[in-house]
Design brief:
This protein is α+β, with helices and mostly antiparallel strands. Helices cover about 45% and strands about 20% of the residues. It has 8 helices and 8 strands. α1 crosses α3, α2 (about 25-35) packs across α3 and α4 (about 65-95) packs across α8 (about 235-255). One of its GO terms (biological process) is negative regulation of DNA-templated transcription.
Length: about 260
């Protein structure tokens, strides 16, 4: 009985560790928890069988489907709650709508938002979702995924167009996602809806992948767009505000 309880305790420690840190190797898990590698391997094999953990092609481990859905939902809900005062401040500073979004399947879902008190604005649409390939939030969050993981989210080679500006192919999406990951932000200029502009940055965990994204959205007529990867003066101001707000949310999430 004592040995069984010890195994349960060690398995829970592994799950807790993987909840805080994505993609750890067998050696990293064993070293961080002070468990022998052979014992760690046996525990991971059991957890993998029951889909509590998954093993990546690089042989590292992360939470599996049996754990990740509930853990991600809890993390996202906490992020939305912590972010709210920062959303209010960001909206007041920019006079544009601000959102917190998460990836849900192949979609970007709005889980929190604040909109300005002005006639011409983008609505918050909390609880609604748009295809991830047509959203700035979706693109910046997909930048943290592997190509294989994006294949699972969006298996079709051709992407569903929402406007004339929507990316149509996986090749075009991969190029834009790579750019978003390199620059640390993503844009959407009329890709999900004509006349709507959005700029998104990730909200990151201390270690691992982003929890969610932070987006500023407004009428495209009000926000000049820079050429290529360049930002206009207005975009540069908005990006600076976004990054400051995201950093403030991340700091609050650590406590």
């Amino acid at each position: 009985m004592a040995e069984t309880l010890q195994s349960v305790h060690q398995a829970l420690r592994i799950l807790t560790l993987l909840r805080r840190h994505d993609d750890l190797t067998l050696t990293e898990i064993a070293d961080r928890l002070g468990i022998g590698k052979s014992s760690t391997y046996r525990l991971l094999a059991t957890l993998k069988t029951d889909r509590y953990v998954d093993q990546t092609p690089a042989r590292s481990y992360r939470l599996g489907p049996a754990m990740s859905a509930s853990a991600e939902a809890e993390s996202a809900a906490h992020c939305a709650e912590v972010a709210h005062p920062h959303l209010v401040a960001l909206c007041a500073a920019t006079q544009e709508t601000v959102h917190v979004s998460v990836l849900s399947g192949g979609h970007s879902e709005y889980i929190a938002g604040v909109e300005p008190d002005r006639a011409l604005k983008v609505s918050t649409r909390l609880g609604s979702a748009v295809p991830a390939h047509a959203a700035a939030a979706g693109k910046i969050l997909m930048a943290a995924l592997t190509s294989r993981e994006r294949d699972l989210l969006l298996p079709a080679a051709e992407l569903t167009p929402l406007t004339d500006r929507t990316l149509r192919t996986r090749a075009a999406l991969e190029a834009e996602v790579e750019t978003a990951g390199r620059l640390g932000f993503a844009r959407n200029v009329g890709e999900s809806e004509d006349g709507v502009y959005a700029l998104a940055v990730p909200i990151r965990r201390p270690v691992g992948r982003p929890i969610c994204s932070l987006t500023i959205a407004g009428p495209a007529s009000r926000i000049e767009v820079g050429p290529g990867e360049e930002l206009s003066a207005r975009e540069a101001v908005l990006l600076g505000r976004l990054r400051e707000a995201a950093a403030a949310v991340e700091a609050d999430l650590r406590y």
